[in-house]
Amino acid sequence: MGRGAGQHGGTRASAVTVIELGIPKLRGSGRDDPSRPGDQRLIDQYGRVATDLRISLTDRCNLRCSYCMPAEGLDWIPSPELLGDEEVVRLIAVAVRELGVRELRFTGGEPLLRRGLEVIVAASARLRPRPRISLTTNGIGLARRARRLARAGLDRVNVSLDTLRRDCFEAITRRDRLADVIAGLMAAREAGLAPVNINSVLLRHLNDDEAVPLLRFALKHGFEQRFIEQMPLDAQHQWDRAVMVSAQDILGQLRSEFVLTPDPDERGEVPAERWLVDGGPARVGIIASVTRPFCGACDRTRLTADGQVRSCLFATSETDLRALLREGAGDQEIAERWRLAMWAKAAGHGINDPGFLQPARPMSAIGG
Ligand code: SAM
Question: What is the pTM assigned to this prediction?
Fold first, then answer.
């Protein structure tokens, strides 16, 4: 699958000298790029500050959504390359303590396939300042683990569900697991993982008529429904803008049944454009990454399951923190490398540029 295109390899930044000499860490900021101000946070050249860390815990998945990966799966990342639980926690601690990260979202692949998930969540919840912790999951197995995860410190959950029809679910995911997802959603609500969001991708000729039923289902059960435009991140490189169901299409469908008014509480950094449904308080969100990019408000940084920092879903280069970690680098050195990675973040994802190139890693190996 061509993982790690453009990785920066494992060379250690000279910032290690800063720690060895005991020079205050501010001096290290930007030392490999003199234009970077001495700011401890994950700032970039366009004035954005990343405070939201998406952590992929595995590239494996127990579904095979046709718009994400092929039926036979992918070449999974070899185990020795995956970060262990302690390594993941160490990098999260660096992000929270040194870099000002305030939100953690665990994703994948399917993060519930990670045996140590509860341990990682619990260790994250012990950090100070205590980050907000969420999980993006397909919901399979959540029914069994929702309570344990809540006890470990998970605050909220996003469950991906594209259809309420069993045959359609099987057609999209190549697995007959709709009932497990619904059970997971209900268990998450019972466990108090609020708000429980449902994330749905609509696909032409498959579930493009389900915007209204999905929203009705969410309203009935107290979930928050969000629709996500399909992005060019599939392993098969079959994404086609011409058939993509756009935010405008989705809004049109919803407005045929509901009165939508802009949510006055909309926060700038939130990618979903949210609307109050029939006057509220229920809301619906649409994440229009393709047709209404929100890169200017992006506050995310990403860590892959094999320890690579990505400044954007669509980045074509990565920064290797795993090698640094395994070479025995200190927290300050890791933090410095992370700062430089984010300083180089591009202004936008470029999906709409004529020269756009899809990243080598598919969504499942980046962490959606
Ligand atoms: N397995 C977990 C899940 O299903 O939520 C986490 C990983 S999955 C990659 C995260 C989200 O990305 C899911 O909601 C999925 O529908 C979405 N997704 C996958 N491929 C996508 C694409 N090409 N465009 C937009 N969303 C995509």
Answer: 0.91
